[in-house]
Records
---
Amino acid sequence: MLELVELSKKFKQLYAVKSLNMFVERGEIIGLLGPNGAGKSTAISMISSLAAPTAGDVRFHNKSILKNAGEFREIVGMVPQEIALYTDLTAEENLQFFGRMYRLKGSILKSKIEEILHLVGLTERRKDVVKTFSGGMKRRLNIGVALLHNPELIIMDEPTVGIDPQSRNYILETVKRLNQERDMTVIYTSHYMEEVEFLCDRIYIMDQGNLIASGTNEEIKRILSAEKTILIKGEQLNDQFISSLQEHPLVNRITTADKQVTLMVAKEVSMFAELTKLAEQAGIDLTSVHNKTPTLEDVFLHLTGRALRD
């Protein structure tokens, strides 16, 4: 359905996106994953025809959207990272306004508004002014606006930023349902690993404007087939203990957080006795040491040397 060919965007001397190649099949949910500043939103701006690339092309049904932007915009829905609603209007009035922008009217528009309000769980709040809504409700209405014209493809740029867990789960379940029940194709950007793991058929990982990995969940995790992750927890993981792990020849990578250390080591390595000895030398008590199944977070750390949210 959609193909990105050597897509690049340069601002002065900086490449925000460099030679990005992607494809999206009909009915897929594609995850575009990366930390803030990775180039995800710039890529989405080009995919949605809102920004012209410095080089490369975006092709939809084998037609360049650079030459057919108007035709493309009629069949794509966009959920931007920033809320795009009129806050002095009600939920229903926002849907009426944007529906007319999509050239919907009469009974067709009325029917779509009823359908969308039900879908995003706002039927009871239809007459309420949007500025009285919570962040999660605004996000849900924003998604509803993008669905009014029955798009073939919906692009969602970090739609759960800054909302409560309940609204976040509602949005994730809604996206899953749209895909399963309506065969809707979705491009979903996030810097939350768990969202992408839950939703997506295939994943593209970006960092500093470059595509650094792609594939299904399991295919990406197999990048770490020669390594394993060890999670260490303790009450006071002091500098001596951390330094001894950083300098240890069997440790490939290490990240630290409050009362927790994550190690990447070769799959065949057994570290338990060594960790016990190092903890004793540092004068600390470990509360737990265990191996864990590789996650996308582990892959990202492996590829970039830093955690996703760094």
---
Amino acid sequence: MEKQEKYGGSTLTFEVIAIILGLMFLVPFYFVAINSLKTLGEILVDAASLPKDVIWANYSKAWDVIKFPTALFNSVSISIVSVVCIVVVSSMTAYRFVRRPTVFNKIMLSLLVASMIIPFQSIMLQLVRITSMLELRGHFYGIVACYIGFGLALSTFLFHGFIKTVPLEIEEAAVVDGCSPLGVFWKIVFPLLKPIIITVIILNTLWIWNDYLLPVLVIGSNKDLTTLPLAITRLFGQYTKQWDLALAALAVSIVPILAFFLFLQKHIVEGITAGSVKG
């Protein structure tokens, strides 16, 4: 009985701590929500208080200023194309590394993993030069190519760990039945990768959707490709900062990705833990 009481008390303590931490993580959402409904003057006076008068017009103004439909379309299209390419290329690459563990493949995998520790800021100048030289700047395919390049390392690493858990006997049986090597991957292996595929989709979508620095460098002044993070910066000038409209725009831009994350977030832990069963 004493052990059960101690266990119950410790569990309650952990639950209370978890609730407090959860509320702390929700504080930024509180500030965004309440301040998006205030005037600029009211925000500057007291950003933590509830709005005296709810200003719904902030949302309509922000919608027009940042050209929300265009920015949303660009963010969605860039995210979808980039993530699909990352999933296809990284899964096939990882499958090759696992099933053909040659010295060359081991070296390539090590280089991919090592590249994850290189800070992005240290290669920005080289990235600008290379994208300019290859005429990738200011083009849709240019930003997509950059996202694929930067997303391959982590995605391949995650797929590599998961594919190790796929029984080789299933593939051998498919080969005996006359399935081609490409058919084995797409018809047998790829469907079994669903948990890690969803994990890779979530992680890369969250990164690409919220990314600001790479679009600034690659998209540049091409307003036709402006993403939501770039569009929101229009509300911040050299001398003026329209916090009321910026927070309204930020609240609207959060909704699609938040809904996407909440719909699929349960698969993140499942995919990562499943890939760590075997080393």
